[in-house]
Write a structure and sequence with these properties.
The chain has 9 helices and 4 strands. It is an alpha+beta fold. It has 2 domains: 80 residues, Glutaredoxin; 113 residues, Glutathione S-transferase Yfyf (Class Pi), Chain A, domain 2 (Up-down Bundle). The protein has a 4-stranded mixed β-sheet, covered by helices on one side. The mean pLDDT is 97. The structure holds glutathione. Glutathione binds next to helix 1 and helix 3.
């Protein structure tokens, strides 16, 4: 019986929830999933016990509450995987931490212009200059990780790490909004989309009935 419970939002929309969910599935960390649909009349009340400012994701480890995606990933890596959530090589690990922090703190235009919407497929999406710059920055990041550290596998640092969990939602955005990508980025998106847990997440998102209007954008 697992001690872990992961509180997540709607699978279709909640990009922050996807990160620890994917990470736990990838590393076969058992957990109970508690899905709380976001932006309903009862959401704040349902999330109020967890000290997360009514945001998801939240990890419960017995009585301990950990919130915020990157903190949850750090907690799981340190306490459950003996640090194996990060690359073993110290330089790779420093880069993985930098790009994970960058994903956590940056890319506001992509978040606004390409809200995660797993069940939708767009044929075209016009991006602002600022958002185009962020797409190019992400491709540069992936290119550097894959060429410098990716030789042992198909993930950013060869083996799957926290960094892949952090970048998973952006791969779904690039695929869903049909964003033109270079070869390395295209292959990386393909790797993510083929992950059984991602397939499971997308299928579950299609079964959700809720619609969050502010995350529904037109081309
Ligand atoms: N920095 C937080 C962001 C969490 C966040 O904004 N989550 C969204 C869902 S994807 C949320 O709970 N939104 C509800 C709200 O803002 O009231 C993290 O990394 O977990």
């Amino acid at each position: 019986m697992t001690n872990f419970a992961l509180i997540i939002g709607n699978k279709n929309y909640s990009s922050w929830s996807l990160r620890p969910w994917l990470f736990m599935r990838h590393f076969d960390i058992e957990f109970q999933e508690k899905r709380i649909p976001l932006f309903t009349e009862t959401t704040d009340e349902a999330l109020s016990p967890y000290f997360s400012d009514c945001k998801v994701p939240v990890l419960l480890d017995g009585d301990l509450i950990v919130w915020d995606s990157l903190a949850i990933l750090e907690y799981l890596s340190e306490n459950h995987l003996n640090g194996k959530g990060w690359p073993t090589d110290a330089n790779a690990r420093a880069l993985a931490r930098s790009i994970s922090a960058e994903m956590h703190s940056s890319f506001p235009n992509l978040r606004n212009e390409l809200p995660m919407n797993c069940r939708k497929q767009f044929s075209e999406r016009k991006l602002s200059q600022a958002a185009q710059h962020e797409v190019a920055r992400i491709m540069k990041i992936w290119q550097r990780c894959r060429t410098e550290y990716g030789a042992t596998g198909d993930w950013l640092f060869g083996d799957f790490s926290v960094a892949d969990a952090m970048y998973a939602p952006v791969t779904l955005r690039f695929a869903g909004y049909n964003i033109p990508l270079d070869d390395i980025a295209q292959r990386y998106v393909g790797t993510m989309l083929a992950h059984p847990a991602i397939i499971e997440w997308i299928e579950a998102s299609r079964a959700e009935a809720e619609v969050i209007a502010m995350d529904e954008v037109e081309p």
